[in-house]
Amino acid sequence: MSAILSEISANLQAGKAKIVGELVGKALAENIPAKDILEQGLLSGMDIIAVKFKNNEVYVPEVLIAARAMNTGTALLKPHLADEGAVAVGKAIIGTVKGDLHDIGKNLVRMMFEGKGIEVVDLGVDVSPEKFIEAFKTEKADIIALSALLTTTMGEMKSTVDAFKEAGLRDDVIIMIGGAPITDSFCDSIGADIYAADAASAAESAKQALLEKKSA
Ligand code: B1M
After folding, report:
1. Which element (helix H / strand E) includes 144?
2. If you take atom 57 of ligand 1, which residue's CA is the nearest one?
3. Closest protein CA for atom 86 of ligand 1
4. CA of residue 97 to ligand 1 center, whole Å
5. Does this model's pTM top 0.85?
6. Binning pLDDT at 50, 70 and 90, where does residue 216 land?
7. Pocket of ligand 1 (CB under 6 A)
8. Number of C-alpha atoms within 13 angstroms, CB side, residue 216?
9. How much is the pLDDT for 87?
10. pLDDT at position 83, please?
11. pLDDT, tens digit, for every residue of 6-65?
12. What average pLDDT does range 61-84 have in this prediction?
């Protein structure tokens, strides 16, 4: 791995957002592909933090500042991850479900969606089923994209699917779910439409589903 990508990873782990931003800028100037900066710099640093968090070697404050550094870095990569000249294929509402404050994965999915020409309305974190429904109606969206990182908040995905059924809107919406504890079988069990394991495949599947919807 190139030295600058290791430096990005190390500074992300130390929560040094400003330095991470500078290094990402430098790596881009050196023509290192944005995908490599994301995967081998930022995400590799976040993976190490995740293991340390699990083993109680770092705690919430350290993880929070690492997450801030991650978001600084990904924001700079955003224009470089987008497909140039992508044509708008549809509109998505994205959010992390109620009770859940994790937003790094959700932000990556948003970025990849935008890169595929999908217009995105981001409701942020801790989003209730009612808020998803309200936004779906006002924005006239095609897809609802739900992220959850906690086993305790996965149930909110089912509540959201059920709320769309109760509102008589289930047939009008494509519901996509993802996040570390989510699986394909969970997706089937709650009656959502698409499970995606990572941000890139989420964007690919969303685009495919939108194109199929348009041609139906
Ligand atoms: Co939290 N946390 N956290 N945390 N945190 C986890 C999830 C945990 C697994 C850590 C552990 O190992 N113990 C654990 C959950 C255990 C469980 O539920 N079984 C945990 C816990 C317990 C908690 C708290 C309860 C801790 C506490 O307070 N004692 C608390 C809960 C707060 C809340 O949400 N109510 C908490 C808090 C936090 C921070 C605030 C400190 C911080 C979040 C900061 C932020 O997001 N702005 C944080 C973090 C950073 C993590 C870990 C370390 C990293 C998550 C992350 O951002 N990964 C995480 C450990 C882990 O995941 N191994 C952990 C990088 C990111 C790119 O990956 O989000 O998985 P991820 O996204 C992936 C895919 O999942 C997918 O695409 C992305 C990759 O391309 N994806 C989708 C995500 N959403 C998708 C949606 C899609 C499709 C794909 O379609 C719509």
Report:
1. strand 143-147
2. 104
3. 178
4. 12
5. yes
6. confident
7. 46, 49-50, 53-54, 60, 63-64, 67, 99-106, 108-109, 145-147, 149-152, 176-180, 196, 198-199, 202
8. 7
9. 62
10. 60
11. 999 999 999 999 999 999 999 999 999 998 999 999 999 999 998 999 899 999 999 999
12. 87
Out of 9, 46, 53, give the residue to mutate to test ligand 1, the one with the largest number of ligand atoms within 8 Å of its CB: 53
CB atoms within 10 A of CB 130: 13
| 200: number of Cβ within 10 Å | 18
- Ligand 1 atom closest to Cα of residue 182: 75
User: What is d(CA 34, CA 183) in angstroms, rounded to the nearest whole number?
Assistant: 28
What are the beta bridge partners of residue 175? 144
Choose among 121, 123, 112, 113: nearest CA to 39.
112
Q: Which of 49, 57, 102, 103 to mutate to test the pocket of ligand 1 (most atoms within 8 A of CB)?
A: 102
Residue nearest ligand 1's atom 69 by CA: 105
Place of tokens 């429904």: 133
**Centroid of ligand 1 to alpha carbon of 56 (angstroms):** 15
DSSP-derived 3-state class of residue 149? coil
Tell me what the pLDDT averaged over the chain comes to: 93
pLDDT at 213: 85
Cα dihedral 76, 81, 83, 86 sign: negative
- pLDDT tens-digit profile of 94-109? 999 999 999 999 998 9
